Amino acid sequence: MRIYEKYFAKQVYLAFVFILFAFSGLFFFFDLINELNSVGHGNYKFSYAVLRVALQAPSRFYEIIPVAALISAIYVFAQMAANSEYTIFRVSGLATRQALGSLLKIGIPLVFLTYLIGEVVGPYTDQLSERVRLEALGSAVSSDFKSGVWVKDTLTARADGEQVTRFVNVGQLQPDATIANVRIYEFDSQFRLSNVRLAKTGSFQPPGHWLLKDVTDTRLISVPPPKNQPADALSPVYRAEQSTLPEYSLRSELTPQILSVLLVSPDRMSMFNLFRYIQHLNENHQDTQRYEVALWRKLVYPFAVFVMLVLSLPFAYLHTRAGVVGVKVFGGIMLGMSFQLINTLFSHMGTLNTWPAPLTAATPGVIYLALGLIGLKWVERH
């Protein structure tokens, strides 16, 4: 890096660290207040609430990094403009394109940091955070349905290659990925109910089996009609064979990673887990729109750091008479908050209207990048 680039980088990084931790501390305080409602229930003490909120801090870092990059760069450039430092750089031959290229270089480590937190640290600590809370409360994960979680599982499970479709109902999913109150409805290739299994508990056995315990297995066998009477497809007759087993090993495409989707919202999952879950949904012919939007947002979001830095550069060309440093920083905060708002709004609109996921994820960034480039053109001319 050139001497002036090192100077820019030092100033921006110092301001970035300060702003990142300042905003994170603010969010930590609000998250802790929100968590106090659960303190006192079960074994959930104040120390567990602090631990849970602390484990959520990496995800807060991930959300804040682009905005912190914008505010820190605006602050640094506003200070330079107020002290006429940036004017000296321009007189010395620093063109706008060179300044923009240098600023994007400074943003590269921040982009890598965003990917690292979003893909490795954040998803892991979020799951730990949920487990701390659930284990302290003595509760289990469940969906909004009173009957629990419903999952579709399709596989080729028989020697003749016939496809089997299962609808699995998990009454409770424990933080350690064990399941309880399990009901499995199995259908043959003609979508006829062929088997019903009930199990009290179950645990995953790699690479692809669930060990169910206290199993009641009910097999439904079709009964042929009496002689000289045609079969009635609308009113079939079955006989049931029921057996009780202490244990039953069930081959399944479902894994704890797929079920762990319930522990973390799609926006806080890693791209790898999102991709695997989308594959599972596609194989079972289920809607993937919400998770595709989340996947593309995770892919595109770190590059918002570059967009924010482009937006910050026009502030270096505004002289002190155009506004004091505090006003410029406040404007940067509002600009960053508006980006987060538009980004979230597009995510929900894209999910509701089934817009293409790449378009939904990239549009806010493209809009604000255009605003930044237009701002640079304007300040150059004036």
UniProtKB/TrEMBL annotation:
Keywords: Cell membrane, Membrane, Transmembrane, Transmembrane helix. GO terms for cellular component: ATP-binding cassette (ABC) transporter complex. InterPro entries: LptG, LptG/LptF_permease. The chain crosses the membrane at residues 12-30, 61-78, 99-118, 299-318, 325-346, 358-379. GO terms for biological process: lipopolysaccharide transport; transmembrane transport. Pfam families: LptF_LptG. It is found in: Cell membrane. The keyword Repeat does not apply. It is a multi-pass membrane protein. This is LPS export ABC transporter permease LptG. The lineage of its organism: Bacteria, Pseudomonadati, Pseudomonadota, Betaproteobacteria, Burkholderiales. The gene is lptG.
